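Subgroup meeting minutes
Present: P.N., E.W., G.H.
Scribe: E.W.

1. P.N. recapped why we're keeping a running log of single-chain structure predictions: easier to compare across weeks, and new members can see raw inputs and outputs side by side.
2. G.H. added today's entry (471 aa).
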Amino acid sequence: MRDERDERATGTRACDSEASRRWRPNKEWSAELADVATRRFVDELTVPEIAKKTGKTQAEVRRMIRQATRWGVVSFSIDERLAYRGRPVKNLEKELNENFGTTAMNVVEVDRVSSNSFTQDNYVHTVLANMAALEIKGRIEAETHIALGGGRAAYETARALSRMVRPYSDVQITPLCGRIRTHSWQNPALPKKPIFRRAQDRNDTEITSLRRPLDADDAAVKLFSAFEYASGTRVNQVSHPLFAETNLEAERHMTNHCPFLPRGQWRGNEKPQLAILGVGQMDPNGDHRLAEAIRDPNKAHEDLYLDKAIPALTKVIEIVKTGSLPYPGDLSNRLFPALFLPEEINSQFKERSTEQSYESLVDQLEEMNRRMVVIDWGHLRGVKTVVIAGGEFKRQALWTLLLTNLIGYTELGRERLVYELWTDAETAKSLLRNWALLESRVDGHELWDWYVEMSKKLFVMTSKAMKSVAC
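Output recorded in log:
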């Protein structure tokens, strides 16, 4: 038996040696080897299909695949999170498309895997990111310019894409905002059993959230890893805190260092074709990164990046609590007031105090946005934006985005901010329930007029020179 194994091994080595002599590895052959490996492991072609496309024999293709794995041209790692999947819900997608017709809707049924809201919210966003990445990868080709926001949704989508997209040439990757966090990357101690388990309950306190910045720069670097060795790949970095000391400092950094310039312009008119964005809402009960500063200002003071934002954030929360308003939302870290859901509005919603509170909130958020190294709304107009958001903490922000997107496009003549949405079934049901309530209320027309008036004040250029211009 040993003699047979030795003979087979010797034969294999002889075969490989013969292949090496025939091909004489060089730069051209290395490119062919990488091409065959890409066709096999990325494009998932069979050996006969690769042989037909490359003009090689099947034996040559097999030898090249074997050599690619032995030399480390191809490497493998196992990531359980990429297996997290949900089920498309076509009837909810159809209903959302009929009502919010300017946005392409994708709805995913996500299993309940934890009683802990933070753990469940993380799982929902990972599922949505994985599902979105499967669709987005087919839109990436040579010379595609991809923009990425900050936060979990954008980062998780970039992570999934980095494992499945083909390494096309001349791809450009651009982050859309500065950094929020300065803390180091840290993995939590792994539990003895899987993090998410459907069949039985588990103690959700045995694992903490992954400690990583998840800023747009990080998402850009993660996606860059898929194109690192492709010719012409370019990745930009903002490399500046999100919050500057003054609006002049923020403008100066964008003017000198960022692909996105002040007042909605792109350097060299290099507007991205595709933008992958997450939505947040500064609910202290949620997992928003600015909400952590709200929950524990003393801890936020220890973070040099967030420390600059504490006074302004404090004013925002005072306005929200005094006026009983929804917590503000953000799109790629650019802040906006969230509107009430119809189910939250009573007959006194148009009281002068509510209008004054919203006016104060708009002014305060505009002041914060001017001090931030972040895109303006004008940067996103005309870009194919894919927004990935769900969970129980973002429904007011999502409602605001989708409704003002619809009103802005159909009644105010604006280009869309949101072209495509990926969300979970529970969030979709909440949006549809509130749409039905808006249509059925006795004061529905008056309420719609209020939403239209609010839409005129939201998602406009915040620079003083452009304040009255709806981009």
